[in-house]
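Subject: sequence -> structure tokens, single chain

Hey, anyone have a minute? Need the predicted structure for the following. Not urgent.
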Amino acid sequence: MSATAANAIYGQTIWDPTDGLARFKNPVLLIVAMLALYIATLATNIAANVVAAVLPSLPVFFVTIKAIAPGSVPDPLIELYNYAWFIGFALASVIYLVLRKIAPKS
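Reply:
Had a minute. Here:
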């Protein structure tokens, strides 16, 4: 449940997911919601740990399989690769601002 949905349903913003779970009265619904929260937390942590471990090793992997020569990729390009999420966010922000300027006001 998002904070906005909690605000619409309960009239107050609930930031802690366990506070939202405490408001459920049906035990079956509570168990399903707790399992969903557990799976979401576990999936997020697994993804964060896997991505952090794999990203820096990909350039080394390409050198190992001889797809690129050692030292042929400058360090700034490797850093751009490591922070691709930030570049995507910056591009999305620029596109949003441009579209906001050129879109007609309704």
